[in-house]
Amino acid sequence: MRILENVLDYDYQGFRSKLEREKLEPYRATQIFDWIYKKKATSFAVMTNLSKKLRESLNRRFELKFPELVTRVESKDGTVKFLWKYADGSTVESVLLRYSDRISACISSQVGCVLKCKFCATGRSGFVRDLTSGEILAQILGMEKSENERIGNVVFMGMGEPMLNYDEMMRSIHVMVDPKALKISQRRISISTSGIVDGIERLANEPLDIVLSVSLHAPIDEKRVKIMPIDQKYPLAVLLESIKNYQAIKGKRVTFEYILFDEFNDSVEDAKKLIEILEGIKCNVNLIPYNETGMGFKRTPSEKARKFESFLKSHGIEAVMRIEKGSDIDAACGQLRRRTL
Length: 341
Known about the structure:
CATH topology of the largest domain: TIM Barrel
Distance between the termini: 33 Å
Largest sheet: 10 strands, mixed
Helix content: 25-40%
CATH architecture of the largest domain: Alpha-Beta Barrel
CATH class of the largest domain: Alpha Beta
Number of domains: 2
Number of strands: 14
Shape: elongated
């Protein structure tokens, strides 16, 4: 029995070359990609500008694998959270976020996560497997089809550590930016990492103008290691040096993500230390209100969070409090999935 290959796992040139090897009219690759990525086709049958014979041949050799939509939950602010189930039963979450000037997608790169950050619901469920590039792309296509809207910004900030699924992540990004596919601007794609130095070093040498975001969440190793075990392998000195090297190569500003936890990392002393370790790095700091996940951490009160933000700004750090989205639908990663396990 022939195993059918998922077209979503191919970039344009790879698919065209495959059609050529299969003697299946390779020049039709443009039309097929147009059907999938522009018209949101989920089967070859609807591709009516292809001959019936070609569609039958495609069906014998390929498939369009989309996950099943298990749950769709919409927030009062327009944020929509999706739970998808793949053919093997694995489930992941993705989120569509609506802003006045853009529509963003927060997507997953792995089923579960191996890093076990203490504040994260995803890590509690353990790691299952990496997603393929096609499975990553299917989240965007599924959300666009569900909401009948075009996604213009993508953040790899969902389930999993994208740098630990580097090759598949990059394959998906090449399709995202391809004018023949999703045609998303490189500058509107952001990779968020917990601090995988090997991945940051690889990204520095990619010929793409994408955004690097680093989850910091504490300004000293003694605190960071308590909530992010990856700090044992890549302590702050090593991580920050890799970011400086990245910046020297790319010349790009880096974003630091900093979740504020009450009475843990939100004091003036924490702010002073954060300013100290970021010296010499061209960056902005995204301050994030914590979505409580039953992990024992509490959200920093709003007034205290604003003082933390103001202190950073008064000392030359470009800091901004992230606009909170989807708090009424448990928009933090892994919460929806855990209710189905």
